[in-house]
Amino acid sequence: MMTDTQLNFVPVNSNLSCVGATGASFPGPVIIDLLGSGVGTAPQNFTGTRTLFGQDPSIGGLKIQIEAIVGTVFANSTGTPTLNMQFQGAPDTGVGGGYLPGTWTTYNETGGMATTNLTAGSVIRLDWPAVFPEGETLPRFLQINFATPAGTNYSTGTITSCITTMVRDDQTNKFAAKNFTV
Q1: CA–CA separation, 49 vs 43, rounded Å?
Q2: What sign does the dihedral 12-14-15-19 (CA atoms) show?
Q3: How many Å apart are CA 123 and CA 144, to the nearest integer?
Q4: How far is residue 50's CA from residue 43's CA, in Å, rounded to a whole number?
Q5: Tally of structural domains, the chain
Q6: How far apart are CA 111 and CA 169, in angstroms?
Q7: Which of 24, 34, 29 has the alpha carbon at shortest distance from 11?
Q8: What confidence tens digit (pLDDT) does each residue in 27-81 have?
């Protein structure tokens, strides 16, 4: 598996807690700045008329995925919660806004995952969007967000890491017939 530590939405062994109020959202602790200079910093290198930076971070030819690992098992507190992992982007607010993320837009999401599937060590995968929607404001900032529906919440549950992967490291012969060797 190829990974880049600069593309970790939840660094390995960070244990992002998903326990909170009903209908809460739990954004990852790391916001990725596609410009590379970091949240709150002005773009340094530009030519011509200054405009707000934004780009389509999709990379042609590679199928990038976001992979989250469940740390502590999830358990219901109120109602029957589901967990929705969302890949979000936000435009730069510019000089007047302090070069901070603007309004977050969800570009891809897993949809509600049942609590029974959120056991310790389980893997949640989400595809990085191939191309961002045409006409959308291109993001400078990216984040991962974990959301629960209104009126429900968890009493326990953590995400131990959430990283981008360029190549999945699944064992390809996992379900092969038992009388063969590799």
Answers
A1: 13
A2: negative
A3: 15
A4: 9
A5: 1
A6: 24
A7: 29
A8: 999 999 888 778 888 877 666 666 677 777 765 666 788 999 999 999 999 999 9
- Say if 51 falls within a structural domain: no
Question: Residue 110 belongs to what domain range?
Answer: 1-36+68-117+133-157
Whether this prediction's pTM lies above 0.90 is answered by no
Establish if 105 belongs to a structural domain.
yes
Q: Which sign does the torsion angle of CA 18, 21, 25, 28 carry?
A: negative
Indicate which CATH number applies to the domain containing 110: 2.60.120
Q: Is the pLDDT of residue 182 over 60?
A: no
The C-alpha atoms of residue 21 and residue 134 are separated, in whole angstroms, by: 35
Read off the pLDDT of residues 12-35 as tens digits, 9 standing for 90 and up. Answer: 988 999 999 999 999 999 999 888
**Tokens 């893997």 sit at which residue?**
123
Are 149 and 15 within 8 A, CB to CB?
no
Does 118 or 95 have the greater pLDDT score? Answer: 118
Residue 173 domain-assigned? no
**Residue 45 domain flag:** no
Q: Please give the single-letter amino acid code of residue 148.
A: T
Question: In sequence order, what DSSP letters do the residues of 42-103 get, joined into one string?
Answer: ------SS----------TT---EEEEEE-SPPEEEES--EEEEEEEEE-B--GGGTS-B-S
| Tokens read off for 55 | 């780009």
Please state, in angstroms and rounded to a whole number, the distance separating the CA atoms of residues 54 and 57.
9
